[in-house]
Protein 1
Amino acid sequence: MGSFSIWHWLIVLLIVMLVFGTKKLRNIGQDLGGAVKGFKEGMKEAESPAEAGKPQQKIADSQVIDAEVKEKTEKTSS
């Protein structure tokens, strides 16, 4: 009892590789790495104060949006 030796971990790794296959394990590793990378980039964006004060413009300057604004009227029911 206690901690496992290196042989125990090698046997577990071998069984996992036989069950899932190396290709599926590689895909899981790539997905996990991409998720960690995206999380780190998101944390960097949240921490940068210079970018936070500047409003983000989602519409290019060359595009024009034509819209009509109407006032909302309240309906009274008796």
Protein 2
Amino acid sequence: MEACRIVVLVSGNGSNLQAIIDHLEKGKTEGEIVAVFANRPSAYGLTRASDAGIPAHCIDHKAYASREEYDAALMQHIDSYSPDLIVLAGFMRILTEPFVQHYHGRMLNIHPSLLPKYKGLDTHQRALDAGELEHGASVHFVTAELDGGPVIIQSKVPIYEDDDASTLQQRVQYQERDIYPLVVQWFCNGRLRLNDNVVFLDGKALPAQGYAAD
């Protein structure tokens, strides 16, 4: 079986990128990161990629007049690596519909909330302000609706009385680094697919909240 060719997009620190790199090194995934792209020159994820021997590129969004022009250029660079899977790992850009459609069924994102709750930004503070008792992260297929694609898996964490946005974020990120590499493994090993906007794992349709262990 040929290795699944993965391209990762980052905007910042790249902690989830690092988690996926570390997971791939364990050899349980039929996949390989063939390139990492960032939209910001300062993104530390580029350094993580270079340190791992992965081609790292900055396609600076400030160099383009419009979102459409940027996405078209980014798509061209990505496609030069003939990817099977696109992984958004803290890529802080709203993607245009042509870009999303081009990679439909093969682009993943991780979002720091229990979707469909708290789409968008500042999810940790919003969960605290709402008096939630639990929070978490969701991995989903990307569609044209912002943070609205079908959920593959969620991981929940408790919210404690003395939590602030920072402590809650740390707890959620710890879970992210477990579930995102797992979903990448499922996809690369041929277990995960999107059909008619329904997520299938091992040929079985998953519920709206995604995979849940017994």
Protein 3
Amino acid sequence: METITAGQYLLVYNAFSFTFAAMAAGTLFFWFGRSQVGHAYKTALTITGLVTAIAAYHYFRIFESWSEAYALTDGVIKSSGVAFNDAYRYVDWLLTVPLLLIELVLVMRLSQSETVSKATSLGFAAALMIILGYPGEIAADNATRALWGTLSTIPFLYVVWQLFKGLGSAIERQPESARGLIKQARLLTFASWGFYPIVYMIPYTSLSGGSVETAVQIGYTIADLVAKVGVGILVYMIAVRKSAAEYGEPGNPTVAVAAE
């Protein structure tokens, strides 16, 4: 394991702790927020909360693994001999990344056939992206990391194309009150996802030793917060505005079912 300073250790330690709390709080907010939206959008918010719930669990495990991997004694950091298990991230992403795209598709309320088609193709591409990226993440040399990183970029580009081209016409059919928020959610999804490859490339920079490990952990953590909590809040706001536009009284099951 890389040697890190006490400051680096505590920075990552506190980032993991904060993110666990943020994901847990997000889960409660999204699930309780189901009462504020119409019937057609409850599933989208259920999945949004599921994303943060899964992430909260994995950040708790990541936090524990980080604590076990190092020992802080009198301000000096020493390796405990227990390896830090970074695989929790990829297990988390394999579950949550496809769901992030599915929640965006569901909140748009497309036709049933279009919803199934988009959710399936985007979910599969997202999972493939994560699967291809993992061998590079754990590789000991940068050449192998670059190979798998390049392969992972292929499904990533497909997802980007679908977000901006495949969903473009569908976004224009959305209620005007929610259209701008959907575009923001799309851009924020792209921005947060685009940050992951940048973090993935940190080992190629001039940083070395504990600085690389610290930068990677903090970078991925920031990207996760934006992609899951940040986009989730936008999905919630979209659901509320579309409920108001379509049902008149968001969260009123009687009105919602009657409208359908």
Protein 4
Amino acid sequence: MDAKKAIKYMLISTMAFACMNATVKHLSEVNSYQIVFFRSLSSLFFTFGFLIKNKIPIIGKKNKLLILRSITGATSMLLFFMSVKYLSVGTAVSLRYIAPIFAAIFAVFLLKERVRAWQWVFFIISFLGVLVLKGLDTELNSYGLMLVLMASVLSGLVYVIINKIGKSEHPVVIVNYFMLTATILGGVLSIGNWVTPKGTEWVFLFSLGVFGYYGQIFMTKAFQTASTNIVAPIKYVEVIFTTTLGMTLFNEIYTFWTILGIALIISGMVLNVWYKSKVKG
């Protein structure tokens, strides 16, 4: 186990995802359907290439679950990208990270898993962060909040579906299904809403898939290099990177209540990861 290398991988991953989030924010004139389409299409170049190069069957074994995971994930992605147009990018990313709360609830009913008392305490801390953002941050857009919360619920469901799929499928097969479905979804929805990108917008659109792919790759490498309790908390550095980019590039203003809400959300999630690893250990 090489903790330093794993942390380095995870920091690269979080920066890649932060760049992707900032790029979505930058593409304010392009509709969210097209952003999903280009983000997914450009990632397919990498996933298809990997599967073909390594002679891994593109069609998986648990097709129904793979399709369900893909539709759920693609819808979650679309809703998140839509929310970024109404919320500061750091706030949107923070709210998306409450997905483990919904994953735990789904797991109780669908997987018959047990959620320990302390985990509920940490979830409540995170949810208090949402309440602070909604109740005390007067700048928060309610429609954007609704979109990102729906994205988080679906993202939580994705975690449970992946758990059901288990290790029977190669990770890249799962991602490839996801990207293919998202490309189709984004493409179909773009037909009646197409806005032709201008100038550098083409570069930014195709860069989404590059950032997303390398974010996934380095995150996977990090989890393969060191234990979850070391790596998982580093994932939340994405919020810091994204918030910094939001302030620097888009002059976003974060009030005291925004920062407090984000801090509560991230603290609850990090404590949950730490507690789960401690119990397993």
